[in-house]
Design brief:
The protein has 476 residues and is α/β, with parallel strands linked by helices. The protein folds into two domains: 225 residues, Aspartate Aminotransferase, domain 2 (3-Layer(aba) Sandwich), CATH 3.40.640; 166 residues, 3-Layer(aba) Sandwich (Aldehyde Dehydrogenase, Chain A, domain 2), CATH 3.40.309. The protein is 36% helix and 17% strand. The protein has 16 helices and 15 strands. The protein has a seven-stranded mixed beta sheet, with helices on both faces. Helix 12 runs antiparallel to helix 14. 37% of the residues are buried.
Length: 476
């Protein structure tokens, strides 16, 4: 094709949402489907909201209010702001894009948590700016590291609270201290799409931070606890100058008629929001307790992001195009993972250039890559933002030389497995992969010592493993 596209697109992968339930039913011949892929609230809109939407259907031939005036006034009254301090968008995600378009220029930097909501990075790259990713610490924003990452080139800093996908909540008092350290010319975006689920007493603390600082924007949405994902309506609280800038870069009529009406009606029922928050907390605690039981029983190693066989098959050609070579097939003969690829070898440059492709195709479930040097292994673990399992395997007499690498990987990988093999047994090089706990044999010998650390489930186990090789936190 003769048409060329902006260079930034070459480094971006298409955002792929979870499959629609109807498509899953058709594809797999299922009657009942429980969808967990898109963080959607399982309950429908409030009954009064449903009726308001039905009553408005006959007016769909008209454009909506281009300024979302009624909704903005309702939000302004709720939060004790002026309407000029409220901005409304097609979900809070659109507002993230608009904010980046309004403040980021080529060569600028945006400080972002990692892992977190992927559009933060996408829109930063589209603007020609540099995403500066700051790794989470214990699945939570490392606010100290984020403050230190701010440079004279920084124009935007994002705090996702609660964080997507880890679900952790940072107390607003800590965010306030971060804001005090950030220069006034850096836009601080506090994305609170899930704030209504927070049970802590200080969940509304960000509002005081925003009121006191013109460079702070708080984003929220009706997509989650209100059950209105399909109508794509979100909002932000900000300084009037920010609202004016976003009104200049947004498209006309960016929030549809039904979305405006449904959101305005939903605000009238805060008691229903409280009921949903309390019910969600009860079920969350129940699920956490059950998963903890499974983990203690050693049965929870494969609970994250398993993909079915069809997806692996579709991903083969895409991986080959990225320079990967299939070395072996999976041993499973039944079930959803039967016949799936379990061992791939890829040039490091190709893998590092497109980590999103690798995790997108496989998720943290079967990808296995070989490396020649420790620094390469660490670099790829950083690039994949703690999503994968790192596996080291070496002869017993060689393993002590890997102590520093073991400690570094324990801090970077989502899961760490170290297998110690008898002297004289030929073993493979260091690897990174994702998914179930690997067998303690690589086909050429059985391990005599094993260390396993799972940061996702906070589960640790080791057997016949040299004490001097344990990370310091485990030596006591």
């Amino acid at each position: 094709m003769a048409v060329t596209f902006v260079p930034a697109l070459a480094g971006l992968e298409l955002y792929r949402p979870g499959l629609p339930i109807e498509e899953v039913r058709r594809t797999y011949g299922l009657e009942r489907v429980v969808k967990l892929a898109s963080n959607e609230f399982p309950l429908p809109p409030f009954p009064e909201v449903r009726q308001a939407v039905l009553d408005a259907v006959d007016g769909l031939q008209r454009y909506p209010d281009g300024h979302s005036s009624v909704l903005r006034e309702a939000l302004a009254e709720l939060y004790d702001r002026g309407p000029d301090q409220v901005v409304v968008g097609s979900g809070s995600c659109e507002l993230v894009y608009l904010l980046a378009l309004a403040v980021l220029r080529p060569g600028d930097q945006a400080v972002l948590p990692a892992p977190s909501f992927s559009p933060y990075r996408y829109v930063t790259v589209l603007c020609g700016a540099e995403p500066v990713k700051v790794r989470l610490r214990d699945h939570t924003h490392d606010l100290e590291a984020m403050a230190q990452a701010v440079t004279p080139r920084t124009r935007m800093l994002v705090v996702c609270n609660p964080n997507n996908p880890t679900g952790t909540h940072v107390p607003p008092s800590e965010i306030a201290r971060l804001v005090e350290r950030v220069p006034d010319d850096v836009l601080v975006v506090i994305d609170e799409a899930y704030v209504e689920f927070v049970t802590a007493d200080d969940r509304e603390g960000s509002l005081d931070i925003q009121r006191a600082h013109e460079n702070v924007v708080v984003l929220r949405t009706f997509s989650k606890i209100y059950g209105l994902s399909g109508l794509r309506t979100g909002y932000g609280l900000c300084a009037p100058e920010v609202r004016e800038a976003l009104d200049k870069v947004r498209q006309p009529f960016n929030v549809n008629l039904l979305g405006q009406l449904a959101a305005t009606e939903a605000l009238k029922y805060p008691h229903r929001v409280a009921e949903r928050r309390e019910a969600n907390a009860r079920l969350r605690d129940r699920l956490a307790a059950r998963l903890a039981e499974l983990t203690r029983a050693g049965q929870a190693g494969t609970m994250l992001n398993a993909r079915v066989c069809e997806l692996y098959q579709q991903g083969r050609e895409r991986l080959r195009a990225a320079g990967a070579e299939l070395l072996a097939e999976g041993a499973a003969s039944a079930g959803p993972t039967a016949g799936t690829p379990t061992l791939w070898q890829a040039p490091l440059d190709a893998a590092m250039a497109r980590p999103e492709l690798l995790t997108e195709v496989f998720g943290p479930s079967t990808l296995l890559l070989r490396y020649a040097r420790a620094e390469q292994l660490l670099a790829f673990a950083d690039a994949l933002e703690g999503q994968l399992t790192a596996t080291l395997q070496a002869e017993a007499e060689e393993l002590p030389a890997q102590a520093e690498l073991v400690e570094a990987l324990a801090d970077r990988a989502g899961r760490l497995i170290v297998n110690q093999f008898p002297t004289g047994v030929e073993v493979g090089p260091a690897m990174v992969h994702g998914g179930p706990w690997p067998a303690t044999s690589d086909g050429r010998g059985t391990s005599v010592g094993t260390l396993a650390i799972d940061r996702f489930t906070r589960w640790v186990a080791y057997q016949n493993f040299p004490r001097e090789l344990l990370p310091p936190a485990l030596r006591g």
